[in-house]
Amino acid sequence: MAESKTKLESLREWVVDHKLRTVGCLWLSGITGSIAYNWSQPTMKTSVKIIHARLHAQALTLAALAGAAVVEFYDRKARGGAGGEPKDDRYSKFLPIDTYSHKD
Questions:
Q1: CB-based contact 59:51 (threshold 8 Å)
Q2: What share of the chain is helix, strand, coil (3-state, %, to 5)?
Q3: Which of 1, 47, 55, 86 is most solvent-facing, going by the fewest CB within 10 Å?
Q4: 30 near 57, Cβ under 8 Å?
Q5: Rounded to two decimals, what is the model's pTM?
Q6: 33-88 confidence digits (pLDDT tens)
Q7: Given CA atoms 25, 30, 35, 40 in this order, what sign does their dihedral have?
């Protein structure tokens, strides 16, 4: 009988498979939340509110990219590769090496 995955394990697997989508969603939620917060500040000009929202979203995006890099590193390490290199090459199906061979 197969073991059922916990919510955390299934979430981690989804993040590993969709890193860029995860970073994009974090950026969108960050800028939305920052704009919503800054709009509640009546003393700021509109241009300053937008600039602050962009800066907050940019910082959140950098943190999300760093987190995606850590997830990728530990995912490769968990698959058993030495030095973070995977045993199985997930990307080999996208690179047809035979079509670029030299002809004599």
A1: no
A2: 70, 0, 30
A3: 1
A4: yes
A5: 0.57
A6: 888 888 888 888 989 888 988 898 888 888 888 888 887 788 778 776 555 555 55
A7: positive
